[in-house]
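User: Could you go from structure to sequence for me? I need the amino acid at each position, not a summary. Structure tokens:
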């Protein structure tokens, strides 16, 4: 059985096998993408780009408004801690069993067998597809917000901006062959993130100081409050987790576990502070009337808001590429794409396949542009299972003989609790989508 040594670009013609308990096999191809080439610092910025993507501009409305001050603040802090813990469990299993597991499904297949390999793969790609769809909605919303600052002709609708966003995301995806190739773009992403976070923060402080007393009561009927609270809980875990940690860890240099732990600590310390700041200040400034896209609420010079909106749009294009990378890796590996990224065959492949994948994302985004609902549904059906349920149970199974009875009980409590949360969040998200579907038609301009 071959062990991937992590040097450079994998060979898609070579493969290893994982044997499950029923002696059936799962063939795991070596990756066509570059691995083991990035510093922990670069990987830390990959993780931080996800946390501080333009989604952060919606957390005041999608987390704080449904939860209120005390539950919202406590919820964010707890979500930070448990997300770091769960991600650490997965990171420590990266070299489990004498080999590197560079894909989430590879790790699950090695521990459980063929069925878990397939289920994990399905959950992960549902998760990533919906995140990508949400990013395109977000990019379209930012582009529309930029447009309406300078024009009130109402000719351009949200679906048009979503289509433009999908096209730009496809161009970027075609240009960047793999995750490690982002490099300089991670610095660009950080600058763009700081622009819209600082603008949102400063203008919110100004509005908050000048505004009269705000209403911080949780809006809605008793029934709607219950469902929105559950949905906000799903948004909490969505905010901190990628659902593709092994794929990100695959890019890091040896020693992969200790370096990944450094990257995670960087993400959950320095990385979360800007997100906390803009989330809390947005809710403080506007209370229960906070928009689900904060830059739509703030008052300030048109050019400043325009700069922030266009920065949010551009940063979203970069962030989407991170969450689309596992799909790109699968397709490139399956079809044996190797050699120079600029080779005619490889470039044509990326244009056709990546462009086609993002076209589907864009169509779904334009059909159902309900950003908050996508966050809730994604958290329910895939982020909870992948990040918390599976992470705890995999660690429990892999380290069974090394854990005390108390440690085993702790992991089982996590599995059961997050299993119930996942079911509750799914019901809540489906209800939200049903309600919004009655309010908005397909291809809605919201």
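Assistant: Here is the amino acid at each position, in order:
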């Amino acid at each position: 059985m071959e062990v991937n040594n992590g040097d450079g670009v994998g060979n898609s013609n070579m493969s290893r096998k994982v044997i499950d308990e029923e002696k059936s096999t799962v063939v795991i191809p070596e990756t066509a993408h570059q691995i083991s080439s990035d510093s922990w610092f670069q990987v830390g910025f990959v993780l931080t780009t996800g946390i501080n993507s333009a989604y952060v501009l919606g957390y005041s409305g999608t987390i704080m408004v449904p939860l209120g001050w005390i539950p919202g603040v406590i919820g964010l802090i707890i979500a930070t801690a448990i997300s770091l813990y769960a991600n650490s469990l997965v990171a420590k299993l990266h070299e489990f069993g004498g080999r590197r597991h560079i894909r989430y499904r590879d790790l699950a297949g090695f521990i459980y067998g063929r069925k878990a390999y397939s289920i994990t793969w399905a959950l992960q790609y549902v998760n990533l597809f919906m995140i990508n769809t949400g990013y395109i909605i977000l990019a379209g919303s930012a582009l529309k917000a930029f447009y309406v600052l300078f024009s009130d002709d109402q000719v351009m609708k949200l679906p048009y901006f979503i289509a433009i966003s999908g096209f730009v995301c496809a161009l970027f995806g075609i240009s960047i062959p793999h995750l490690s190739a982002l490099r300089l773009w991670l610095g660009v992403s950080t600058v763009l993130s700081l622009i819209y976070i600082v603008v949102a923060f400063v203008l919110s402080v100004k509005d908050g100081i000048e505004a009269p007393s705000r209403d911080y009561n949780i809006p809605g009927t008793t029934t709607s409050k219950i469902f929105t609270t559950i949905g906000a809980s799903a948004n909490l875990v969505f905010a901190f987790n990628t659902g593709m940690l092994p794929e990100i860890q695959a890019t890091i240099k040896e020693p992969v576990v200790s370096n990944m732990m450094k990257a995670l600590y960087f993400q959950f310390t320095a990385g979360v502070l800007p997100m906390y700041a803009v989330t809390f200040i947005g809710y403080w400034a506007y209370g229960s009337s906070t928009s689900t896209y904060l830059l739509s609420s703030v008052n300030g010079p048109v050019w400043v808001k325009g700069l922030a909106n266009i920065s949010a749009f551009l940063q979203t294009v970069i962030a989407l590429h991170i969450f689309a990378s596992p799909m790109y890796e699968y397709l490139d590996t399956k079809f044996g794409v190797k050699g120079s990224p600029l080779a005619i065959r490889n470039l044509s492949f990326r244009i056709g396949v990546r462009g086609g994948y993002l076209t589907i994302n864009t169509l779904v985004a334009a059909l159902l542009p309900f950003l908050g609902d996508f966050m809730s549904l994604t958290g329910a059906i895939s982020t909870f299972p992948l990040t918390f349920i599976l992470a705890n149970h995999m660690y429990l199974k892999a380290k069974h003989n090394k854990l005390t009875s108390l440690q085993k009980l702790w992991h089982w409590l996590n599995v059961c609790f997050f299993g119930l949360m996942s079911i509750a969040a799914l019901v809540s998200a489906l209800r939200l989508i049903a309600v919004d579907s009655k309010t908005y038609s397909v291809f809605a301009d919201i």
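One structural detail worth keeping in mind: Confidence is low (pLDDT under 50) at residues 1-14, 19-23.
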